[in-house]
Structures are given as structure tokens and as C-alpha cells.
């Protein structure tokens, strides 16, 4: 584990800042996970998720998607909006590919991708485009229409899925109407499953969100952990 040895290190790989969220268990199960940020950047919550996965034996890498705009950690959506809009399919693909290449230098035999909010949109695309062997999306928008130029919509990606994928969505998420979830259920492949959490809003898994739903979050996390244990093998 020479190249990635350390705890919460920041390195640059192919020009992309990447956080390494490791502990003594990281990489012990032979699998890696690309963890993709929310609108807020690579913040403490995302690192906590990374630590939880590393503690289960995964080698976790977090590409910083906002690095071209100063790589901020954001708390206000007005500040996040221009950072999000500056992303393109090309830049996202480049940054995720750098994380994949970093994992490829290590003895991992399978790779998963997990993302929240806008990162959930990226993880759905990554699962459909061959980036990962399995993927999980938490409330990723852009289902009916792509969020970024050069990247397919979520529904288009879902129709191309050939690897196992889970989607976690709250039924009270005003940014992702249930009609789009109905469409997602219709177009997704047999390798995919969509979970709906009654009454949960957007960002229900994030304890820093006003929409945090502890019960839905615990259920979704348990499903995620079990899913990766079943689909990523060392």
C-alpha cells in the first residue's frame, strides 16, 4: 500500500488533488472506493464517510472536483452554485479517471463509486460508463435532464447500467420528483435497485443538513455497506 499509505493525506495525481482516507484497515479487503463530493466540496462529513469505509477495509480516494475554482469547502448554496455550474462532463471525467488511475496502481481487484447529491449524479454516470464495478447514489439529481454539458442525464445513464447499482432517494425531495423516480424504475437495468424513503427530503443522510432523517440514513447506510460487501471482492 506504498503509494497511498497514510491517513487523510492530500496528494496531486494527474493534476487532480485527491484525498486519501486511510487507516490501518484500508485496503485490507482488496477493494477500492471512489468517494464523490456533495455541492459543499470535500468537507468533514465526506471525510467521515471515507473513514467509515476505510475502517471496513476499503481503500478510499476522494477526487476534489472544485480544484479549478480554488477547491473551497462551502456552506452557502449561493457560493456553491457557480462552482457546480463550472463543472463539465469533460472535467468530471478527467478527475474521476485520475482517482481510478491512482487505485489501479494499488493491489485492488475491484472498485466501487459512491456519491451524494451532485456526487450521486456522478456515481450513477460512473457506474454506467465502466468507471466502477459497483456504484451507489444518494439523492443524485439530473435524472430527467443532465446537470452538466458533456454528461448524459441520469435516466440515460441508468438505461446503460450493466454493473450492480443502488439509488437512495427521499420521497419528500423537492429537487427530485417522484415522477422521475418512476421513470428511473422503468429504464434501469436488472442490475440496479432504487430505494425510496417515505417522507425523507434531500440530503437526508447528512447529519449537518436540516433534512437529516436518522432512521432513513441508518437504513440507507446499512444497505450501502451490505451492497459493497456483496459486490466488491478482493
UniProtKB/TrEMBL annotation:
Highest taxon in the source lineage: Bacteria
Gene3D superfamilies: alpha/beta hydrolase
Alphabetical list of Pfam families matching this protein: DLH (PF01738)
Entries under InterPro entries matching the protein: AB_hydrolase_fold, Dienelactn_hydro, Dienelactone_hydrolase-like
Gene Ontology MF terms: hydrolase activity
Signal peptide (residue range): none
Domain Dienelactone hydrolase: 29-230
Name of this protein: Carboxymethylenebutenolidase
Amino acid at each position: 500500500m506504498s503509494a497511498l499509505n497514510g491517513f487523510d493525506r492530500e496528494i496531486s495525481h494527474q493534476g487532480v488533488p485527491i484525498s486519501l482516507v486511510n487507516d490501518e484497515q484500508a485496503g485490507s479487503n482488496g477493494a477500492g472506493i471512489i468517494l464523490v463530493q456533495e455541492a459543499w466540496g470535500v468537507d468533514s462529513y465526506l471525510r467521515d464517510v471515507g473513514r467509515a469505509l476505510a475502517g471496513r477495509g476499503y481503500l478510499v480516494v476522494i477526487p476534489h472536483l472544485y480544484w479549478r475554482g480554488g477547491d473551497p469547502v462551502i456552506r452557502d448554496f449561493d457560493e456553491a452554485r457557480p462552482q457546480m455550474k463550472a463543472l463539465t462532463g469533460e472535467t468530471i471525467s478527467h478527475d474521476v479517471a485520475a482517482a481510478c488511475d491512482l487505485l489501479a496502481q494499488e493491489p485492488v481487484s475491484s472498485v466501487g463509486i459512491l456519491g451524494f447529491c451532485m456526487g450521486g449524479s456522478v456515481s450513477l454516470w460512473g457506474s454506467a460508463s465502466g468507471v466502477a464495478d459497483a456504484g451507489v447514489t444518494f439523492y443524485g439529481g439530473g435524472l430527467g435532464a443532465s446537470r452538466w454539458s458533456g454528461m448524459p442525464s441520469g435516466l440515460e445513464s441508468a438505461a446503460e447500467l450493466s454493473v450492480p447499482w443502488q439509488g437512495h432517494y427521499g420521497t419528500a425531495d423537492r429537487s427530485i420528483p417522484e415522477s422521475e423516480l418512476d421513470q428511473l424504475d422503468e429504464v434501469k437495468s436488472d442490475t440496479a435497485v432504487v430505494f425510496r424513503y417515505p417522507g425523507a427530503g434531500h440530503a437526508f443522510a447528512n447529519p449537518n443538513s436540516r433534512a437529516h432523517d436518522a432512521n432513513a440514513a441508518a437504513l440507507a447506510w446499512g444497505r450501502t455497506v451490505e451492497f459493497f460487501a456483496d459486490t466488491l471482492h478482493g
